[in-house]
Amino acid sequence: MTSIIANTILPRLGRSKISIAVSLLILAAAAFALYGLLRDVDFGKVAAAMKAQSIETLAIAGAFAVGGYVALSFYDLFALRTIGWRKVPYAVAALASFASSTIGHNLGAAVLTGGLIRLRIYSAWGLTVVDVAKIALVTGMTFVLGNALLLGGAVTYAPQAAGVVDHLPLWINRATGLAGLFGIAAYLIWLAARPRAIGGSGWRIVLPNLRLTLVQIAIGAMDLILVTLAMYTLLPSSPAVGLVAVLVIFLTATLLGTVSHAPGGLGVIEATMLLGLPQFHKEELLAALLTFRALYFVLPLFLAAFSLGLREMRLLAQAASVRRDHHGCDR
Q: Cα(194)–Cα(314) distance, rounded to whole angstroms?
């Protein structure tokens, strides 16, 4: 089954030699940056900063993280409706989205691991490997469009925030942000002309129309806004840093983490945030990052694994009940 998914999904959504090289480059740069950034860190102070976080702060950050996962559940629901599977209930789509995203991103190779989980869940409703590949494509588009809108807009507004990480002139960063916004506008204009489709026979997807694409962008943007607010809530209260600046740095960090294919963006997110927010004490910022990782990556990973385990136990119980009933009828 794994080989079937790999042969179906990866050639269309997988990694070329260039993308592998980019991933390795990002990982190497993050490792080098972390080595320099963490050499003088007092981990005793990091632990103390984590202990000093208030229950109220953790509760608010946790609520934003939960809200982010609720928004994430609509990725799969939107994708299912886009490819014509309207009978799959929201609860099923939410479980598939949550489990595939959480486990896939934490384990790495999210296209393959997430595809396996989606196929396991959706196959009970009649979906095939090709359908799962289509869902992966549409959900990926949702993430890219939402990211392009938020990051493009934020970098256009505050190019100096991106400059802390990439060290590029302000005009280049602003031009990059404007290019992202222009790309979205061009895509919407292209969709408005007439119905659009991509792919060939057996792999054809009719793209959402203009109105539905705006909904798609809103889903991706809402997910990213809520996750950013979770991170923003955990940051030290002093010095004060604007939300837009944090949005630029955090979305850049998560985007680099996604492109790197590192499990959970581990190391990449931390390195980018430490570089992008030098005004904070390293120990306090690292404490916030570790707490965020626990709230948004570690705890959901256990919850996703537990939810899948319960589902499998229920399916086994149902299968055993059917076998007993069958044997009873035979007698």
A: 46
> 57: which 2 tokens?
């702060």
According to DSSP, residue 270 is labeled: H
Q: Is 167 left (phi over 0), alpha (psi -120 to 50) or beta?
A: left
Count of beta carbons in the 10 Å neighbourhood of residue 272: 26
Sequence-separated (6 or more) residues with CB below 8 Å from residue 299: none
Give, to the nearest 10 degrees, the angle between helix 210-234 and helix 243-260. Answer: 110
Residues 6 or more apart whose CB falls under 8 angstroms from that of 233 comprise 57, 60, 61, 64
Task: Determine contact, residues 296/228, Cβ cutoff 8 Å.
Answer: no
Taken in order 118, 13, 265, 242, the sign of the CA dihedral is negative
Whether 6 shows a pLDDT value over 50: the answer reads: no
Contact 276, 249 (CB under 8 A): yes
Element (H, E) at 197: strand 197-198
pTM of the model: 0.89
| Distance between CA atoms of residues 89 and 285, nearest Å | 41
Going from the C-alpha of 154 to that of each of 166, 175, 216, 217, the distances in angstroms are 15, 12, 19, 15
Least confident interval from 17-26, 48-57, 96-105, 267-276: 17-26
Cα–Cα nearest to 267, from 60, 72, 62, 26: 26
Tell me the residue type at 185: A
Report d(CA 234, CA 248) in Å as an integer. 16
